[in-house]
């Protein structure tokens, strides 16, 4: 693991955007694995600025997102589909037909998970996977569990994740309790992984990701087994 310690959220966002831009420049046909949450928002903002100054071109880029809330349709303003359009897709020249996000409104969960895994396979896998991290060490929506997950699957969100995500919803009751998420195996198959973390609330998870035992109780710890992981984290996230 290569760990870049940066001062704060702004520096993390700039560094992460530079790494993603390098990937796009080196391989304009890249398949990017994308993440949501507050952590990558600044990164996407920087990427949009780079696009506006003509430094990068998304026209051949393909994307697969990590996860989506089950039960939210594309036009719900809390869906990850909405988030991606708001923060990135609508600001750059990416072809929407080249972007992929699990369909939260799918009626048949198993079919949707299989469809999503097939998309990743047909794209030839992920070149660069961007990850945030939950306070409990989850990546995508792979929550602490007895075993590591494999492909895309339906997840029952833990109370700590529901509580953490409640800030995006009007009431706690509106926070979805289930999601579709790429599995740990799918994430580990990405050729390169970029994990971002900012703030004190991530310090314990980041400490255990880097130093802790590799256990499905701390899903991000599996990244220790990947041979090309870059962590960009700020001083608070690395404070332990
Ligand atoms: C959600 C997402 C994760 C994200 C995590 C942390 O659970 N499914 O992909 O990493 O939240 O979110 P934040 O960056 O807002 O702290």
Describe the protein in words:
- The longest helix has 18 residues, at 9-26.
- The protein has a 7-stranded parallel beta sheet with strand order 1-10-9-6-2-3-5, with helices on both faces.
- It contains 7 helices and 10 strands.
- The chain is globular and about 45 Å long.
- Strand 9 (192-197), helix 7 and strand 10 (229-234) form a beta-alpha-beta unit.
- It is an alpha/beta fold.
- The protein is 30% helix and 18% strand.
| Structural class category | alpha/beta
The total of beta strands comes to: 10
What does the average pLDDT come to?
96
Unreliable residue stretches: none
Name every ligand kind in the structure: 2-amino-2-deoxy-6-O-phosphono-alpha-D-glucopyranose
User: What percent of residues are in strands?
Assistant: 15-25%
Q: Helix fraction?
A: 25-40%
